[in-house]
Amino acid sequence: xxRMIALVPAAGSGSRFGAPSPKQYLQLNGxxxxxxxxxxxxxxxxxxxxxxxxxxxxxWFDDFDWNLPKLSxxxxxxxxxxxxxxxxxQALACAEDxxxxxxxxxxxxxxxxxxxxxxxxxxxxxxxxxxxxxxxDTVKRADSEGRVGATVSRNGLWLAQTPxxxxxxxxxxxxxxxxxxxxxxxxxxIERLGMKPLLVEGDAQxxxxxxxxxxxxxxxxxxxxxxx
Length: 228
Ligand code: CTP
Ligand code: MG
Description:
Mean pLDDT: 96
Order of helices and strands: EEEHEEHEHEEEEHHEH
CATH topology: Spore Coat Polysaccharide Biosynthesis Protein SpsA, Chain A
Bound molecules: cytidine-5'-triphosphate, magnesium ion
Strand content: 15-25%
Oligomer: single chain
CATH class: Alpha Beta
């Protein structure tokens, strides 16, 4: 039977966040930020393994007690996200038809229900797909002077999130065919093969911690969940 593996790239340096350690290791409600990400994925029954990809030069991972089921650690991260994912796939030696759910370590407020929705929606799907959200706001395109150049119709526009879920064989083939630095998500690599991943409704709580201002929201979401 095909296995289901969550692959979590966590080899970034968090340059936009600008903290002394990468953002995935910042303390958030008593745990490293990425602990919350990994714990949610591990709590999803359908997921067999949670594989985290860290940098070979990582100086932080071993300082924490992760204490999570299903966790495997791969010190094979690369210079960009797509490279970390590619190297992680190689290290895992998946079967062609295993499902891989690639999820950003920095999306630490991922609701388990959204992962379950993605898995259920793709059970019989030929290509795979991703969590995403329809754009809620009016969209403007700026001109070179920071003024409104145009209002763009938001009709049909979605914001891509993760997890992005594809068969391991197809994903490895798609990533091998592209320049890694041009690719910011797995779906774009699959699209370049002429395939059409399915958009599955994500969740506004599943945002990516990018700047220091994002931490307060993440803290509040996780605290509210703990209090339930
Ligand atoms: N990532 C990775 N390997 C890289 C770069 C990024 O595994 N070489 C991971 C990050 O750790 C993160 C996810 O990809 O979990 C999404 O990337 P992003 O939010 O851009 O994180 P960073 O690249 O660390 O942040 P920044 O772009 O601000 O430097
Ligand atoms: Mg980055």
